[in-house]
Amino acid sequence: MLGAGVMGVGITALAIGRGVQVTLVDVDEERLATARKRVRHELRLAHVLGALPRHGPIGDLDLADSVDAAAGAGVVVEAITETAELKVKAQNEIAAVVAPDALRITNTSSIPVDELAGHVPRPEFLVGVHFMNPPYLIGTLEVVRGPRTGDAAMVAVRALLERLGRKAIVVNDGPGFVTSRVLHRMINDAARVVEEGRASVEDVDALMEHCIGHRTGPLKTADLIGIDNLVDSLRVLYERTGDEGCKPSGLLLRKVADGHHGRKTGRGFYEYGAL
């Protein structure tokens, strides 16, 4: 696992909670120093919520500060910032140390897989998986097959997700795939409605939840995704589609600038207690 941010820690908790051994890699010493504690917290929460078996096997967790630690891995999941250039760099570093037939997964919410595949060796072993936050609660995953993704990679990713207890829905490549292309634009519009003074945050979520059937409401969902991550994803969508509806709203941009990124910072559209 490359990346010890919110998603990397959550995916790691899911994997070790299903008995899979994980080496979690991050070059940020401060982030790596707290990674084990954060994984344990997520694992405890998953057990409390009944999202992972309490009495099943727990996979070993190792920590490393260099991608060289992935050398013997059959699967590497990259879960770093939603920036194409950084992901290309990370995927090239992974490809340089793993076996030629190792499965390489990019956890992305919006960047087309083929955009990355065009800049890395052996693109047939690169596949996108859109893990959503928190990974141990979301049982159905979007698997993105790029035009260059090979059959062997698809067999391997299905086997991995089955072992993790996840259901894979395979979609074709393109900016935002299915979930982000639909959901993130809706969240952006919900933020605009609040910004325009038409309704409060709570009322927007209540209407979408109780009238439309959205499980949590779009703005609570934004807090869960991380508003900074959401803005990054919207920028990717806007740059690649030209859809004005994907241009991040002023309210979202102000939240990011103020450090109100959602649940992970204790405040977003809502306020949260200590996590």
Automatic annotation (TrEMBL):
One example GO MF annotation: oxidoreductase activity, acting on the CH-OH group of donors, NAD or NADP as acceptor
InterPro entries according to UniProt: 3-OHacyl-CoA_DH (IPR022694), 3-OHacyl-CoA_DH_NAD-bd (IPR006176), 3HC_DH_C (IPR006108), 6-PGluconate_DH-like_C_sf (IPR008927), 6PGD_dom2 (IPR013328), NAD(P)-bd_dom_sf (IPR036291)
Name the record gives this protein: Noc-5
Pathway the protein acts in: Lipid metabolism; butanoate metabolism
Keyword annotations: NAD, Oxidoreductase
Encoding gene, per UniProt annotation: noc-5
Record family assignment: Belongs to the 3-hydroxyacyl-CoA dehydrogenase family.
Residue ranges constituting the 3-hydroxyacyl-CoA dehydrogenase NAD binding domain according to the UniProt record: 2-173
Ranges for domain 3-hydroxyacyl-CoA dehydrogenase C-terminal: 176-272
GO annotation terms (biological process): fatty acid metabolic process
PANTHER family attached to this UniProt entry: 3-HYDROXYACYL-COA DEHYDROGENASE FAMILY PROTEIN, 3-HYDROXYBUTYRYL-COA DEHYDROGENASE
One Pfam family recorded for the sequence: 3HCDH_N
Residues with site note (Important for catalytic activity): H130
Residues at which NAD(+) binds: G3, A4, G5, V6, M7, G8, D26, E82, K87, S109, N133, K264
